[in-house]
Amino acid sequence: MKVLVGVKRVVDYAVKVRVQNNTVDLSNIKMSLNPFCEIAIEESVRLKEAKSAEEVVAVSIGPKQCTETLRTALAMGCDRAVHIQTDMRTDYMQLQPLAVAQLLGKVVEKEKSDLVLLGKQGIDSDCGQVGPMLGGMLGWPQVTFAANLQVEGDGLIVERETDYGTESIKIPSLPAVVTCDLRLNEPRYATLPNIMKAKKKKVDTIMAEDMGVDLEPRNEVLEVFEPPPRKEGIIVQDVDTLLDKLRNEAGVLSS
User: Using an 8 Å Cβ cutoff, are 170 and 110 in contact?
Assistant: First the structure.
C-alpha cells in the first residue's frame, strides 16, 4: 500500500489573528502544521510501522515556507515529500478547495497512491471540502471524520464520527480517500535524531501553475471581520437570582 498524506500550513491554533484591510493579516504571525493534518500523518506512519503501508508520501500546497512544514511531516516518519509551490493564499481567500482537490488529484495519479489520508478540515478556512471533492474526482470510495481505522484484507474498516455517535463503514478494497478526525490518534513528537534525518529526505517541488489546473477562486470573500467583544459577566449571590436572570433577562429559560 502506498499512502499519500496531505499537509497544510496554517496560522498556529494558539495565535489571536488580526483583521486588516478586510482580510486576516498573515505578516509576522506564527504558522504551523494543521492539527488535523498532523493526525493524518500519525495514522499514515502507524500504517507503515504495522507493515500495512510500504511508503508514505507527504504533499503540501503553498509558499516556499511549506518546506518547513513538510520537514515536520518527514521528521514524524514520512518517507519523502512533494511541495506544490504557489504564492496564492491557501486560507480560502485565493486558493480554494476545488483547485486544491484538483492539484492533489494530479499528485495521486502521478504517485499511483492506494490511500489518501487528509485532515478533516483546515483550521483556517474550516471548509472540510477537499477530501470529498478529491474522492469524487477520482471516483474512489471515501470516508470522512475517521475516529478509528483498521486494515482488513485488501480494504479498510473505518469508524467515523456522526452527530449522534459513530458508525463503521467497510471499504472492501482500495484505493480510497479518508479524512481524519480528532479522536483517531494522538500524534507523536518528532525526536531530535528524526528531525536531523528529515533534513536529508527528498522534497520534490512542482509549480502549481505548471500542473494544468485552473487556480482562480470560484467564490469571492466580501467581508472579514472580528467577532464582537464578549460582554463582561456578573456575579450573582445565589441560585434563585441566577435563575431569575436567566429566565427574565437572558430569556433562555421558560417560566
Answer: no
pTM, rounded to two decimals: 0.86
CA gap 42, 47 in Å, rounded = 9
- Residue 205's SS3 state is strand
The dihedral sign for the CA sequence 110, 128, 96, 16: negative
Report the mean per-residue pLDDT for the chain.
92
236 neighbors 242 (Cβ within 8 angstroms): yes
Cα–Cα nearest to 36, from 105, 127, 113: 127
DSSP-assigned beta bridge partners for residue 115: 3, 176
Distance CA 169, CA 130 (A): 20
pLDDT beyond 90 at 248: no
pLDDT tens, 37-52?
A: 999 999 999 999 999 9
